[in-house]
Design goal:
about 375 residues; mainly beta; Methylamine Dehydrogenase, Chain H; Lipocalin; four-stranded antiparallel β-sheet; 1 helix; about 40% strand
Length: about 375
Amino acid sequence: MKARQRALIVAGALALGACSSLNPFSGGSKLPALTPIASPVATSEAWRVRVGDASVFVLQPAIVGDAVFAAGDGDVVRIDNGRVRWKTPLKVTISGGVGSDGSLVVVGTPKGEVIALDADSGQVKWRVPVNAEVLAAPAVSSGLVVVRSADSRLFGLDPADGRQRWVYQRATPPLSLRNSAGVVLESNVVLAGFPGGKLAAVSPANGSLMWEGTVAVPRGATELERMSDITSLPVIGARATCAVAYQGRIACFDMSNGSTLWTRDLSSSKGLDLDDSQVFVTDEKGAVQALDIGSGASSWKQDQLAGRGTGRPRVINDYVVVGDAEGYVHLLRKDDGRLVGRLRPASSPIIADPQRAGGSVVIQTRDGNVAAVGVQ
């Protein structure tokens, strides 16, 4: 077991060192310069709050209505319209967070503790162990808390007291990438991507497997070359459910039965988003691409952001929004991929996924700034 753990660490280090899309903040090279935008779309910083450094972890803010829940430096914070309503010091390192349904706020720790707080008061409601490091934001919805541990187990917990309802576990390849991808929790399904390029739909009622889809098929002569892990969240749309794998493919599935609609070779560790007609993905070089949701055919590719540590794309109204390693937020037109707007709310890397909040996007930087950027 110790030999396997060493191999996992070495492989992860090699992969992170070799692929700038997985580790764009390691230093050394200067990022490509940005080209000025003619007649940019109006953007504005609505507010900014410092919540504390994320350290080596990826901490996602959670948005419920007008409330923003965020974590950093061992603290959990509720922000209402740019003002801190409460701040709770947990006196532990937070490595996975934040998940919330507006009633409960949940985070995880490197020592495998899951902590739930009351969303109104910030008081701790319960703390339970899952005995494995938690790197992903827990999912909270539909009377269930789903926590993903670093060893790819899924724990279904009771939101009232943290009692374990079920555990989902599957075999994983000898080597896998360390990542902060969590799960998508809907009323009738838990979706999670796994090492080896598998997408699983799990029942929230009892943790049983509903269907499994193949996003990528591992290829190569070595274990390192065969790593095809899903390191980002899958997305659910009206027409398809889609996911993308590192060193693999992007694939869309029929949500009802898991049948494959289409696949296409495309590597990404950052993730994707979709609307009714297109899937938007940031590839391993940092370029943003749009694909037809019905066929996977290319709609456009914006490569001016390549090499800038571009993160996961998010759809906001008529735009695709991405953050980068210098703290810039970029706006691209959905229809043709043109860069039409830019704002720099902070100078630290935007490593968490941008979160939609009405006509705004909320970002969290590595050094702990949470900001709302308005998009017109």
